[in-house]
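pipeline: protein-struct stage 2 | run 1193 | Odorant receptor
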Amino acid sequence: MVFILPYIGVILTVMYSQCWCGNEIVDQSEKMSYAIYSSEWVDGDLSHKKLINMYISLTKKPLAISLGGGITIATLPVFVRIIKSTYSAFTILQRFQ
């Protein structure tokens, strides 16, 4: 049991860092279309306005890091669900021992 605790700590740290980065990517990409719209595009020429319109339409759906072949995305709430599910499974297995 003593040897498995550092391993669990490393796995939790790696999972948390990936979910935190995924959460940041989702948050920042959600702000992207508003940031593009807030730029000074009104005074630009027609081709510039078309490009801004295209960028806004492309950034409406936020970027995300997929987990499990696209089953879910890496965010902090997903990390919490993984920890809760793992702990539940662990306690059930401990009862049967």
